[in-house]
């Protein structure tokens, strides 16, 4: 009997097991070695022999459990700084290359624009060679100390951040906003109280401030006849008797003109306040016959960069199609 007991403990069949049917193997306990395809782990997961990944082991034939907590989405508060960073980068790119907001600080463009209005300025088209046209309202850098003596605002921290991302104009930038009256090659003139003439054509100006005359009858610059050089523009405010524009800066280095390369962009819409929302189209008076004759060459030049770009792309597309076609027939 002693031998039987020892044989049983050592894993060999004893005498009492002879002639009996073989019993099924007991379930594999946790931590026991497994000779199967997958190897067990202590937490009840199976490690796949091919890729080392794990899958949940059901208990008693139940379906696999849900994914572990480690795969949960990142919390909103952890993602918030990333979202803010992306928004700031996008805002900076938009401000630099697409659209920028500007605030109107004076009454020189009333009633088209009023003090406190926020306008959106298109900065994209100048990148493609487009130049200002007659009748457009444009923002431009101070060309020759036109704002000399004007007070400089002292922004707080919030205003500094908003100006950096383009939601407010920078206090360090001295910019002005006026309407383009003449472009390169034009002759602009004013006699007595008006009307204002461009290339001999009188302008009907319904946008001029009520009660103002199109021209100012004074000896400070209100009476003039100028020829606008190529690469420059002649600008005037809609509030004619309250605008220090090209007329009153004819003694500067540019003769009162604004170099085209100093133009930030065209104001396209009044975005704020909401009750002032509206676009800033070119008035019909600038579309009259004969007025545009001298700018036809300039218009062709402004389209040239786009045309050249298309002309340059066409051969590349043709070459690629020639290379792809033989490959598809193989």
Explain what the structure shows.
- This protein is an alpha+beta fold and 330 residues long.
- The chain contains four helices and 15 strands.
- Strands 4, 5, 6, 7, 12, 13, 14 and 15 form an eight-stranded antiparallel sheet that branches.
- The relative contact order is 0.12.
- The N terminus and C terminus are likely disordered.
Mean pLDDT: 72
The largest sheet, given as strand count, sense and whether it forms a barrel, is: 8 strands, antiparallel
Find the structural class using helix and strand composition: alpha+beta
Number of strands: 15
- What is the radius of gyration computed over CA atoms, rounded to a whole number of angstroms? 39 Å
Give helix and strand order, one letter per element, not per position: HEEEHEEEHEEEEEEEEEH
Regions with pLDDT < 50 over 5+ consecutive residues?
1-58, 295-314, 316-321, 324-330
User: What characteristic shape results from the CA principal axes?
Assistant: elongated
**Secondary structure: helix percent:** 10-25%
Tally of separate helices: 4
- The N- to C-terminal Cα distance equals 83 Å
- Beta content comes to 15-25%
